[in-house]
Amino acid sequence: MFRYLVRRIIGGVLVLGIVSMIVFGLFFALPADPARLACGKSCTPELMARIRHTLELDQPLAVQYGRFIKGVFVGRTYLKGTAAELHCPGPCLGYSYQTDEPVTALLKDRIPATLSIALGASVLWLLVGLTSGIVSALKRGTWIDKVSQSIALGGASLQIYFVGLVLQFIFVDKLAWFHSPGYVSPFSDPKEWAMEMILPWITLAFLLSAIYARLTRAGMLEVMSEDYVRTARAKGLTSRRINFKHVLRGAITPIVTVFGLDLGSLLGGAVITEYVFNIPGLGRLATDAVSNVDLPVIVGTVLVAAFFIVIANIVVDLFYMVLDPKVRLA
User: What's the whole-model pTM score?
Assistant: First the structure.
């Protein structure tokens, strides 16, 4: 188990290294001048010179990338030895010339909001989706199954911006049951944090739980037809033990895979959700950086998103080891 985990971590580090090279190359090694791209519409010669000097674009590409990677681990100093010296403590992912702040500081300010959305919503959609899928599989062909799958099909067909706006109109504007969505730290005011997060959670849970309900139902029905399940019934095992120890365990593997991808993507930035509910998370930071052509922030958000996806996949692999011991030999 330990060796398998080490291999997966090494593989994840290699993936992040490749992603960093690709992203860095896309923005800093292309024929177009990154400083000119970053200047935007309000570009002046002075601003372009400052950006080029701050980003150290006058250095060879290998030196630029080497300093970037070094900054990730130990930090780096821009404009060293000058009156405008800028220190970026590690892990340093660059310095935003649009906001005059280290990219890491911007990410730290936005990550808590994105974490709040992703983790809270994931708990809801797992509970609702798995429960609905299990009940539908066990009650196959009944009115419960038909109603559940009809709701799941409707939920899978809708979009976040539509459901989010409808829920805000009903529960915030008309009924005034919830506060206007936003973000407050759970450590400063837990109640206000929950009240402002409840609508984003419900919106994401409604849409994603529909997919998980259909996956769970299909997986359980497929496993129920396996020979070892029929053998377990012939041995006289109780339906409860068969359904939850054998059937659900065999059907949950693809669900774990999809959950890892969904959670990793949300942790990297729930762009539409954050815009619909006016939440300052990683998704909004990334889109604002694209609008302002703030290259260091774009690179930073892409790398953080890749990091969360890699971590989510490693966690999924660990769950595989628990669900299927044969994975350890892979």
Answer: 0.78
Helices (H), the chain: 2-28, 34-39, 45-54, 61-74, 103-138, 143-157, 160-168, 190-224, 227-234, 239-241, 248-251, 253-267, 271-276, 282-292, 295-323
Structure-block tokens of residue 50: 């400052």
Quick check: helix, strand or coil at residue 88? strand
Going from N- to C-terminal start, the domains of the chain cover: 20-103, 109-329
- Residue 281 CA to residue 114 CA, distance in Å, equals 5
Reported as a single tens digit per residue, the pLDDT across 244-290 is 777 877 778 888 888 888 888 788 767 788 888 888 888 888 888 88
24: Cβ–Cβ under 8 A, 6 or more apart, which residues? 64, 65, 68, 299
DSSP 325: G
Token readout for 184 is: 């407050």
The architecture in CATH of the region 109-329 reads: Orthogonal Bundle (1.10)
pLDDT tens across 199-240, in order?
888 888 888 888 888 888 888 888 887 777 788 788 777 777
